[in-house]
Design goal:
About 30% of the residues lie in helices and about 20% in strands. The chain is α/β, with parallel strands linked by helices.
């Protein structure tokens, strides 16, 4: 079976990017990777969260301008952290002959991690883009007990460098080092 990759851009919507840690840098990394993927003929699949705060058609729900899907590209709407659950994502990827997903987006610990693990469980190889995922800005000043954003991002990059998944290839790469020709 030939190796075919697809780039997933998860929840890079205006309202979420507004609260994202290192938003400008993350959007730029994903945008550059998206352009290289398109130039190489790889599918770019945009995933959007829909819920009580992210209402379809509103400005906050829209994907940030730099990452707006191109005409004819697949767009998947979801209502849970799992981009595969009750969506057409798996069917889209299988119809395209995809064997590996390149995962980017928001938020590291929730939708990005859940989707990455579900992709592995569904038989896809994984490229976890080290500088292409982010989480919310936070800190003790905000009164929360969450791990600081930089540390959380590093932690998930480390997890995906060390996690074992029998029969799957898992790689962590910065966006500039992701091979879109394979």
């Amino acid at each position: 079976m030939p190796h075919t990759a697809a780039l997933l851009v998860i929840d890079m919507q205006n309202a979420l990017v507004d609260i994202a840690h290192r938003a400008t840098e993350t959007v730029a990394a994903i945008a550059g990777l998206s352009e290289r993927a398109r130039a190489a003929g790889l599918p770019v699949v945009t995933v959007r969260q829909r819920d009580g705060e992210l209402v379809p058609g509103t400005e906050g729900w829209r994907v940030v301008a730099e990452l707006t899907p191109r005409e004819g590209e697949p767009v998947v709407d979801k209502t849970t952290p799992d981009s595969f659950l009750d969506t057409g994502l798996d069917g889209i990827l299988r119809a395209l002959g995809v064997t590996e997903v390149i995962v980017t987006g928001f938020a590291t610990e929730i939708c990005v991690d859940t989707t990455a693990r579900q992709a592995l469980s569904r038989g896809y190889d994984l490229v976890f883009v080290a500088d292409g995922h982010t989480t919310s800005r936070r800190g003790e000043a905000d009164g929360d007990d969450l791990v600081p954003a930089d540390r959380s991002i590093r932690q998930y990059n480390t997890i995906y460098r060390t996690i074992g998944w029998p029969g799957r290839r898992i790689r962590v790469r910065v966006a500039a080092d992701v091979d879109v020709t394979a």
